[in-house]
Amino acid sequence: QGKLVESGGGLAQPGGSLRLSCAATGSIFSIDDMGWFRQAPGKLRDLVAVIYSDGDTNYADSVKGRFTISRDNAKNTVYLQMNSLKPEDTAVYYCNAHLAAYSDYVVRNYWGQGTQVTVSS
Fold first, then answer.
1. What would the 3-class secondary structure string for 4-45 be?
2. C-alpha to C-alpha distance for 63 and 66, rounded to whole angstroms
3. Which pLDDT does position 103 carry in this prediction?
4. Quick one: which H or E segment has residue 95?
């Protein structure tokens, strides 16, 4: 089985930066796409950014030009560099990945535990 372990997040001022990391751990055979979602209080969980195994990326319009997603395949880790943060970026950020474990080679959808990002002066 696999597991996603997030780190980073916290408090930033408007215009500031934060970096999130998410490592896929366990007996992993392969990882397809990896991405980040976020959920603000009272709102649905929305896609922020995704990076595919071939390196292609996709971003929500609200973060284009400010956030950058990247991955280190050797470390099974995905990153989200968040610059020019705005108060509306405040949310719980969840890592997501579709991966297969050596136990059965079946691709499943995994979620991290979530990390709080707060943008406030």
1. EEEEECEEECCCCCEEEEEEEEECEEEEEEEEEEEECCCCCC
2. 5
3. 87
4. strand 91-101
Report d(CA 22, CA 3) in Å as an integer: 10
**How does pLDDT run across 44-89, given as a tens digit for each residue?**
999 999 999 999 999 999 999 999 999 999 999 999 999 999 999 9
Whether residue 1 has pLDDT greater than 90: no
Asked whether the beta carbons of 108 and 3 are under 8 A apart, the reply is no
Q: Give the whole-angstrom CA distance, residue 8 versus residue 115.
A: 7
Output the CA torsion sign for 98, 18, 8, 12: negative
